[in-house]
Amino acid sequence: MSESAQARRPMGRVLPHELPESLREAGLTNWIREPLDDAVDRRRRIIVPPAAATAGTPASAYLSALLSEAKHPDTIFMMGDNPALPKMPERPCLKDFFLLRFGKIPRTHLLQSARVARERGLDEKVIMACMLHDIAIAGLLSANHGYWGAQMVAPYVDDEVRWSIEKHEALRYFPDQSVGYSYPQAYIDYFGPDYRPPDYVCREHEAARRHRWYMTSRLVTINDIYSFDPDVVVEFDEFEDVVGRNFRQPKEGLGFDGSPVAHMWRTMIWPNNFL
Ligand SMILES: [Fe+2]
Ligand SMILES: [Fe+2]
To answer: What separation in Å is there between the alpha carbon of 110 and the centre of ligand 2?
Structure first.
């Protein structure tokens, strides 16, 4: 680099150097590594995607090429705050995850679902469950999201709320005409008209129907509306009172209270950590 180019380079940026051809050919240059302009400490940071995100895709074949990148002296693996993400407060609360980690579509989906439940005059447990039912999709993992989501909130909500979040995943696939719930058109669009849920989901549904909290979870599915209208705005603050009464926010912050699920919240704070 010429002296004048060196002089123009803003502090904190690092020189680009070519990625191996294998990574470029796989189209992974943008997805896996943050842009070089975001580099901090004058070092490049490699983001290695988790196995759950790449299994079954071509990206899974490029792990060794990514690992080799760390041999460059100006390159390390991502640990701690990713400059591409908004910084979380030291003691994050539920609202921080909604605003700083969840994408607009899942955030709006959750808040809209809670708003519909509230407008229908439903119990606060149902409103709270609606507001939380897909938080695993919003911030962690989509597969088995009902179970992940239920575990994430278990220490902080009433057990009925936890249970209804867990079971909504299975109940979504099964109509209940007695309360006017039909198989979702969205699932026909998403999975095809011939999709049948696996046996374990069928068993979960059967067991849930006999449970005393069945209707709480069923109400989550009824209010689980698939409205992704970008013009609809629902603010988290609309539910500040419901959250205050139904979500036991730990004073140390979510992720740092030493609970059995703290690691799940930390994973959402630092989703790109190598370890
Ligand atoms: Fe869901
Ligand atoms: Fe949902």
So the answer is: 7
CA of 167 to the centre of ligand 1 (A): 9
Q: Look at residue 53 in the predicted model and tell me its pLDDT.
A: 87
Q: At what angle do helices 159-171 and 145-153 cross, to 10 degrees?
A: 170
Q: Which ligand is nearest to the CA of 168?
A: 1
Residues 6+ apart with CB under 8 A from 274: 46, 48, 77, 78, 79
- The reported pLDDT for the residue numbered 63 is 83
Q: Rounded to the nearest whole angstrom, what is the distance from the C-alpha of residue 31 to the centroid of ligand 1?
A: 26
Orientation angle between helical segments 159-171 and 124-132, nearest 10 degrees:
60
Q: How far is CA 235 from the centre of its chain?
A: 18
| CB distance 269 to 255 below 8 Å | yes
Residue 53 Cα to ligand 2 middle (Å): 20
| Other CB atoms within 10 A of residue 53 CB | 14
Q: Which stretches of the chain score pLDDT less than 50?
A: 1-12, 14, 35
Residue 60: both structure tokens together: 């899974």
Ion ligand 2 neighbours, Cβ < 5 Å: 134, 224
pLDDT at 128: 98
Tokens of 269: 């704070």
Give the Cα separation of 38 and 97 in Å (integer).
Answer: 22
Q: Which ligand is nearest to the CA of 186?
A: 2
* DSSP secondary structure, 174-200, as one string: S-BGGGTB---HHHHHHH-TT----HH
- The ligand that comes nearest to the alpha carbon of residue 144 is 1
pTM above 0.85, yes or no: yes
